[in-house]
Write a structure and sequence with these properties.
With 216 residues, the chain is mainly α. The chain has a domain at 140-216. Helices cover 70% and strands 0% of the residues. It has twelve helices and no strands. The chain has helices at residues 20-30, 32-38, 42-45, 53-62, 65-88, 96-112, 120-137, 141-148, 151-160, 163-180, 184-199, 207-215. α9 (151-160) packs across α12.
């Protein structure tokens, strides 16, 4: 096999901490032609393993177009998520607004990876899994409120026209506001300031505030 792969191992042991399976699949795809040729060469045909049930099973798998398509689908779905894992697992732990924005971008990349109509059912399954894991572990109003109050991230979402996400973030902010500020008058003042913030009015309309929205 190493002769077919140019002396390279398909899987090299390393302290990856996560994504070992993804890296293994990438290696398989990288050596796809070498692996397929391995099971069509005379050396394999004349080998006694080629006549065993296990050998024939492996041969059928490696030569199966559906199997390779499934691996490619897996990589399309997991590739963007791997980037999120690397950021989250880095030495500098990102703030939740950054993670929320990154997950939004990641889901967009996953969607772009499945543009064909015949893959839409698979895409829905993938997004459902991602959403469920995110909601179970990270979906908290405080995170949404933090993203709402991060102008550099929030107004880029506004510019994208994602009304559903904008409404969700505003709802998170309202939820946190209602839980943390019990005085009605104070809460109403903060809510009015939030409206000015959304519309870039009042103190949020001056040039310094606008510049900060871009820089943060």
């Amino acid at each position: 096999m190493r002769k077919a792969t140019g002396g390279l191992d398909l899987v090299r042991p390393a302290a990856t901490r996560f994504a070992t399976s993804i890296l293994a699949l990438k290696s398989l795809v990288k050596h796809k032609q070498a692996l397929r040729s391995l099971f069509t060469c005379q050396a394999w045909v004349g080998n006694k393993l080629a006549k065993t049930a296990a050998g024939l099973n492996v041969q059928d798998i490696v030569l199966s177009a559906d199997w390779w398509h499934a691996i490619e689908d897996c990589l399309r779905a997991s590739g963007p998520l791997l980037r999120v894992l690397r950021v989250a697992d880095g030495d500098e732990i990102p703030a939740m607004p950054e993670m929320t924005a990154l997950m939004r971008f990641t889901k967009e990349k996953i969607n772009q990876g499945f543009p064909h109509q015949n893959k839409q059912a698979l895409l829905k399954k993938v997004i459902d899994v991602v959403d469920k894991r995110w909601e179970n572990q990270m979906d908290h109003p405080l995170y949404g409120a933090a993203l709402f109050l991060n102008p550099g991230k929030y107004f880029s979402i506004v510019e994208s026209g994602d009304d559903a996400l904008i409404g969700e973030l505003r709802s998170c902010f309202n939820d946190v506001l209602a839980r943390t500020i019990l005085d009605v008058n104070t809460r109403n003042k903060i809510d009015a300031q939030a409206v000015d913030y959304e519309d870039k009015r009042g103190p949020f309309a001056n040039q310094m505030a606008i510049d900060n929205m871009v820089e943060k």
